[in-house]
């Protein structure tokens, strides 16, 4: 009887092995989790912040496109005269003193350089401010005045162009070099976003010099009565007159850098304003 009792199992019921196995599994999982954390959860050094990490992984080189901003105020007096002043001052339109006409310029020169430049910048009588092109810098307009006055005998000295700083060279766009952009403000303004000529911009930079105030009989923008007989001649006739010039109006409004398409777009813009 006693020998039989020695071989009696200590397991009293079936739940005991289940609980034992469960505890072993939990203990095993806990040990594995602790080991994993010890291996992978090494804290970063204080210097390894987010900024430092991004700095280490950034590319070796970077490409940065320069802002398209050509130098301003670099045109000479003769260049400004050719682009805008010539329209009226070559033929003496609306009382504008002709270049080289000493009798017409004598009073202007006698008044002095400062008033002459101020009138050219702000406008006076039939002459709009800056000849109708606000894109010019004041110093460029001053150079144009000095250039024209010099043709009539004035000894005014033209303001020099500012030399670009060697430490901070002007940024330019590869697609549009500064020299090309500075060559003709009217031409630069003529193209719209879709690449087609922008009639309004051509008008604003060239045509408005005469068509805004009605200089020398030029039909004013929006004046239906003045435009009616001209529209009757047909658009092709208007195009030809604007491109080749007629009576007091010079070819292409005096800006020969404009293309035929630019001029036609300006005519279309002015014609649309009275339809």
The tally of helices reads 13
Note the overall shape. elongated
Q: How many beta strands in the DSSP annotation?
A: 0
Uncertain residue segments: 62-70, 164-189
Q: Compute the separation of the termini in Å.
A: 128 Å
Helix content: 40-55%
Radius of gyration: 40 Å
3D structure, described in words:
With 275 residues, the protein is an all-alpha fold. 52% of the residues lie in helices and 0% in strands. It has helices at 2-6, 15-40, 50-57, 77-89, 102-111, 113-122, 138-151, 178-183, 185-190, 199-211, 224-232, 235-244, 260-272. Helix 6 crosses helix 7. The longest helix has 26 residues, at 15-40. The relative contact order is 0.11. The model is unreliable at 62-70 and 164-189 (pLDDT under 50).
Features:
275 residues, mainly alpha, 52% helix, elongated
Provide the fold topology.
Elements (H helix, E strand, L loop, with lengths): L1 H5 L8 H26 L9 H8 L19 H13 L12 H10 L1 H10 L15 H14 L26 H6 L1 H6 L8 H13 L12 H9 L2 H10 L15 H13 L3
Helix pairs in contact: 4-7, 4-10, 5-6, 6-7, 10-13, 12-13
Offer a concise description of the structure.
This protein is mainly alpha-helical and 275 residues long.
């Amino acid at each position: 009887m006693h020998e039989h009792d020695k071989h009696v199992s200590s397991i009293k019921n079936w739940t005991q092995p289940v609980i034992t196995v469960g505890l072993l599994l939990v203990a095993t999982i806990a040990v594995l989790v602790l080991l994993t954390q010890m291996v992978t959860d090494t804290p970063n050094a204080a210097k390894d912040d987010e900024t430092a990490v991004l700095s280490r992984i950034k590319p070796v080189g970077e490409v940065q496109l320069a802002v398209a901003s050509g130098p301003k105020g670099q045109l000479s007096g003769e260049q400004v005269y050719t682009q805008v002043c010539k329209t009226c001052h070559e033929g003496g339109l609306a009382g504008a003193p002709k270049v080289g006409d000493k009798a017409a310029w004598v009073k202007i020169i006698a008044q002095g350089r400062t008033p002459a430049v101020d009138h050219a910048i702000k406008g006076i009588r039939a002459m709009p401010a800056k000849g109708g092109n606000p894109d010019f810098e004041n110093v460029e307009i001053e150079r144009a005045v000095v250039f024209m006055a010099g043709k009539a005998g004035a000894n005014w000295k033209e303001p020099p162009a500012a030399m670009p700083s060697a430490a901070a060279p002007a940024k330019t766009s590869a697609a549009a070099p500064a020299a090309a952009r500075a060559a003709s403000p009217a031409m630069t303004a003529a193209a719209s976003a879709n690449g087609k000529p922008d009639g309004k911009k051509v008008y604003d930079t060239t045509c408005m010099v005469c068509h805004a105030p009605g200089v020398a009989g030029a039909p004013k923008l929006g004046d239906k009565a003045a435009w009616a007989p001209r529209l009757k001649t047909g658009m092709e006739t208007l195009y030809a007159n604007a491109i080749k010039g007629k009576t007091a109006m010079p070819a292409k409004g005096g800006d020969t850098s404009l293309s035929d398409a630019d001029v036609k777009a300006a005519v279309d813009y002015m014609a649309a304003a009275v339809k």
